[in-house]
Amino acid sequence: GAINLALKGTEAIGVTDCLNFASPVNPEVMWQFSETIEGISVACEALGIPVISGNVSFYNETDGKAIHPTPMLGLVGLSEGKHKIAPSRFFSTSLEIGLVGNREGGMGGSLFASQWFGRECGKPEETDLKSAVRMLNFLAKLKTKRFEYACHDISDGGLLLAAMEMAFQSPFDCLGLEINIPRETDTDGFLFGETIPRILVAYDPSESTEIEVLANQAGVAFTPIGTVNDDATVVIKQGGAKVLERDLRSLRSQWHKKWKDFF
Length: 263
Hints:
Blueprint lengths: L1 H6 L3 E10 L6 H21 L3 E7 L3 E2 L2 E2 L3 E9 L17 E6 L9 H7 L11 H14 L6 E5 L4 H11 L7 E6 L5 H6 L5 E6 L4 H11 L3 E8 L3 E6 L2 E7 H15 L1
Parallel strand pairs: 1-2, 8-11
Antiparallel strand pairs: 1-5, 3-4, 6-9, 6-10, 7-9, 8-10, 11-12
């Protein structure tokens, strides 16, 4: 949440929570609740964000079947100055795409595992809170720069879905993108891993050095991974070889229909 706010040039200043669980009479449920409280406390202390309000809802069960533990957090942020808010979509067909953060993400409890294999399994990787602080510092530096850029967090679905969403939200339906998987990188972890913090930045090629310098100063990794073009396709390459190519127009249509039906 704090990173999502930072992507819009806003500093998180407060958290509210809504913690939804099954019956606390069940020791496992009470353990889940206790661990959630501890996790929120550790994260908020590390990021310097106070919890200002919240509520707890227990006994969320139907016919004896418990819901999954569902902690929900809302953050409020403060935006100072006149910095332009960066879009989360591609705004040109001549951009480079860079990955900020680790090259690979964890697959435990991921959308990929759930949707592709039909299994809700695996332990999600723990968030490196020191890395999260460094990422926030990077974004704070980036927003002060005068050049145009777009950025998107990598969360549900991983890097590939985040990159495609940046394309789907663009006003240009001719837009396409090419992603190059770095050498000695796990393909699944790179494309579909959901470990936080990882973000995508799209920028004019002339700004690549400046962004890399900012990343180095903040102590986060920066890896150029691809380009935006006008081919209306998504292309994935590894070691120079093409491993996937799909028409983006049809995928974009499906994506927009999904969200139209959702709302």
